Amino acid sequence: MGDKFVPAAEATISVRTMAFNSGWSVFEGIRAYWNEEEEQLFVFRLPEHLQRLHNSARILRMELPADIDEMVERCRSLLERNNLREDSYLRPIAYKGLPTKLGVNLLDAVDEFVAYCFPQGRYLPTERGLSVGVSSWVRIQDNAAPPRAKIGGTYVNPALAKTDSLLQGFDEALMLTSEGNVAEGSTSNLFLVVNGELVTPPSTEDILVGITRGTIMEIAEEEFGLKVRERVVDRSELYSVDEAFLCGTGAEVAAIGSVDGRRIGDGNIGPITRQLQEFYLDMVRGKNPKYRHWCTPVHTSAAGTSDRELSSTVAK
């Protein structure tokens, strides 16, 4: 706490913290991948994630405790101190702490920061086609609570959609905008394969502008010569596409096998989706020299420097 690395058990907050009381926080989910051959842990697109954290913080009128370069080093050091040598997950959170007075004024609370990490394998069963259902819960609007920012309190929206979908027997949910257009998955962006081209809803359709989404768009065009179109997607179009997949830091690249019980293709991972999935999973482990600059190495020595229970909390 207070610019110190501390054991996770000591990284406590007050019950009066506004992030706990009112959801006033912004966060990032960042993956780190273990490269067995090099015995190195690589964090994928760490500066880009932290830049988005800065952008989200500005929307909630928060200041982070350091610039991007310093934040990169703090996060890298956190992973190294935990001596993580397997696929892992990093979560930095900027949040409003103790209030100076009661109310809903974002200026009346202290800005705080915490980051922690833990081992993390697959988030979704990416080895098969997922069954997804279109949720009855509508995606939040930009003019209500902007989904382009990863705001803690707004994640009750996708949580309702995902939970209901699981109870209905689906693997994942797809959410529509208030106008009835397709937005995204509960916590992942959507791509369709239509006549050999990639189609994805634009940023104006109340989506989180995903870093993995941008990565897929770049490598699809650069490595596979695929045309990528950002356009409005109607719900009924989901039922007749050639392939579909979700992507995100957690989801990685996850094929969709069916939507609302209607099979997509043969219900398995389509050929374009599989190409992108395999290329992505190789790239994030630092195995592709062309994209090595997206991978931040963690370990500066063969041995770690602390135990696995550490958590970093930096309070401003």
Outline the secondary-structure elements.
Blueprint lengths: L3 E4 L10 H5 L2 E3 L2 E6 L4 E5 L1 H14 L8 H14 L6 E12 L9 E11 L10 E5 L21 H12 L4 E5 L5 E4 L3 E6 L2 E4 L10 H14 L3 E3 L12 E6 L3 E8 L2 E2 L7 H13 L11 E3 L12 E6 L1
Parallel strand pairs: 7-8, 7-14, 11-12
Antiparallel strand pairs: 1-17, 2-5, 3-4, 3-5, 4-16, 5-6, 6-17, 8-9, 10-11, 10-13, 13-14, 14-15
Helix pairs in contact: 2-3
What does this protein look like?
- This protein folds into 2 domains: 4-121 and 296-315, Aminotransferase class 4, branched-chain amino acid transferase, N-terminal domain (D-amino Acid Aminotransferase, Chain A, domain 1); 130-268, D-amino Acid Aminotransferase, subunit A, domain 2 (D-amino Acid Aminotransferase, Chain A, domain 2).
- Helix content is 23%, strand content 29%.
- The chain is built from 6 helices and 17 strands.
- The strands form 2 sheets. Strands 7, 8, 9, 10, 11, 12, 13, 14 and 15 form a 9-stranded mixed sheet that branches. Strands 1, 2, 3, 4, 5, 6, 16 and 17 form an 8-stranded antiparallel sheet that branches.
- Strand 8 (172-176) and strand 9 form a beta hairpin.
- Helix 2 (46-59) packs across helix 3 (68-81).
- The longest helix is centred in the N-terminal third of the chain and has 14 residues, at 46-59.
- It is globular, with a radius of gyration of 20 Å.
- Residues 302-316 have low confidence and may be disordered.
